[in-house]
Amino acid sequence: MTRPKILGLTGSIGMGKSAVAAMLRDLGVPVFDADAAVHELQGPGGALLDEIEAAFPGTTGPQGVDRAKLGAAVFGNREALVRLESIVHPAVGAMRRAFLKDNAKAPLVVFDIPLLYEKGGHEGLDAVAVVSAPADVQRERVLARPGMTTEKFEQILSLQVPDAEKRVRADFVIDTGVSLEETGAEVERIVRALGPL
């Protein structure tokens, strides 16, 4: 049975991955957004709320997971983080398999996985594209986010594989430090290289 080619899309915080994912969707490429899947599973009425509440009492409510409380429960606690991941990852995997089945006839699909290299999500992919921008552009974008501090930004960066390493390991590098038109043209070139538009 033939299946679509699978492109993994990743990039560090503030690199413009969401904008690139939108460009791919505009080209008609189905995109599976791992973060959106997690939000759905943990949001109001989410399928994982009972299991998360049982493992981390007091971290959920009518609005779903209280991200601040859950974050506090697992932050700096390797064992707790592994427990949370053992609840979340299989459910996201099931959603990804369903997405692949629903889009079995597409020539190309994209798995948008923020921590692709950090969590070993690159197995089974035909290619990986990393979204990248100069460090000063990245810093400016991230620090403009509400509630973001330099300390938070540095902490997030310390947990991510460095951009330079991602660029070396990827099959494609999408530069978002240029105009949207230039980035869009690069995205289109990659889609044409991997599957017909």
Q: Mind explaining what this structure looks like?
A:
By secondary structure, the protein is an alpha/beta fold. The protein has one domain (5-194): P-loop containing nucleotide triphosphate hydrolases (Rossmann fold), CATH 3.40.50.300. It is 51% helix and 14% strand. Strands 2-5-1-6-7 form a five-stranded parallel sheet, sandwiched between helices. Helix 2 (34-42) packs across helix 5 (78-102). It is globular and about 50 Å long. The two termini are 21 Å apart. The mean pLDDT is 89.
Short description:
With 197 residues, the protein is of the alpha/beta class. It has nine helices and seven strands; from the N terminus they run E-H-E-H-H-E-E-H-H-E-E-H-H-H-E-H. It has helices spanning 17-26, 34-42, 49-55, 67-74, 78-102, 135-143, 150-159, 163-169, 180-194; strands spanning 5-10, 31-33, 60-61, 64-65, 108-112, 127-132, 172-175.
